[in-house]
Amino acid sequence: xxxxxxxxxxxxxxxxxxxxQDQQLDFLSRENIHVELTSAPLCITKxxxxxxxxxxxxxxxxxxxxxxxxxxxPVAHLSYTAYTSRALATMMSISEEILLKHGLLAICxxxxxxxxxxxxESVLIAVAGKHRREAWHGGEEALERVKxxxxxxxxxxxxxxxxxxxxxRDGGVGVAVDxxxxxxxxxxxxxxxxxxxxx
Amino acid sequence: xxxEDENSLISPEFFGxxxxxxxxxxxxxxxxxxxxxxxxTPTGTFKILYFAYASSHxxxxxELLPAPMQLSELFETLDKKYPRMKEKVLGSxxxxxxxxxxxxxxxxxxxxxxxxxxxxxxxxxxx
Lengths: 199, 127
Prior knowledge:
Pfam family, one (chain A): MoaE
CATH class of the domain at 27-68 and 84-152 in chain A: Alpha Beta
Shape of chain A: elongated
GO molecular function (chain A): molybdopterin synthase activity
Helix content of chain B: 25-40%
InterPro entries (chain A): MoaE_sf, MOCS2B_euk, Mopterin_biosynth_MoaE
CATH topology of the largest domain in chain B: Ubiquitin-like (UB roll)
Strand order of the largest sheet of chain B: 2-1-7-4-5
Structural class of chain A: alpha+beta
CATH architecture of the largest domain in chain B: Roll
Helix content of chain A: 25-40%
Order of helices and strands of chain A: HHEEHEEEHEEEHEEEE
Largest sheet of chain A: 6 strands, antiparallel
CATH topology of the domain at 27-68 and 84-152 in chain A: Aldehyde Oxidoreductase, domain 3
Pathway (chain A): Cofactor biosynthesis; molybdopterin biosynthesis
Main location (chain A): cytoplasm
Shape of chain B: globular
Oligomer: heterodimer
């Protein structure tokens, strides 16, 4: 993200427009855990700073970024939608589970929603551990749980205009989004799992 | 473990565990939790939310449906309203009622009441 955008977000603590206030409400936070959904560009520094601890010997960060192709098909843009309240609860539940299981010191999970330009971060997961081993393993497992469970959906719009709702369940193609809006909706060509066409 | 047990995580008691955080964060948690209450639905209806390809199929992200309705009648009702929705969408979706996942295969009856918030949840694709 640009420094400017980051600074603008940081400056929101004072008087902020209503829309930005709403944006600020899309998080849950407690000691050692912070989970958030935001339409703003993600800030790696801010996420890392949330998990810092003098007790930590390792901070592990995963940054998921948006690719410009799917199966060699050029992607024009991607957007994410979320069931915000449900997704935050799931992110919190995953965080608690991972923190406990791997004995971590802190965890932060932030997912971006709305349109995400190609090459930018769509998800950041950061964990702090006393030692590298639990931090690596905990971070990896947190990512897998997020991809399995968090109620966020990715829509890829291809350069040819077709849109596809992705599914993580099979790592496969997802569900295409029709351009036409016919009643029949097309068959969506299920390949290796779920494919749904999107209007 | 029932779906209810698993989702007891999002009960008010769960948020009550939050400690060492500012008051505004407590209120944020409550606000997230009570989103449905803050947007009251007209009497005699429940709100249904459609996500991803469920919303593509219905061409809307949410609507109000008449309450009460038996949960077991939900998919048939939607299928009548939106032809082929069961086959094309609902077969691969999960359902939440007031943020808790419910079992659509159970024979146990559950009633959708006025003011409830129902979510149609396709397979997720975060990350």
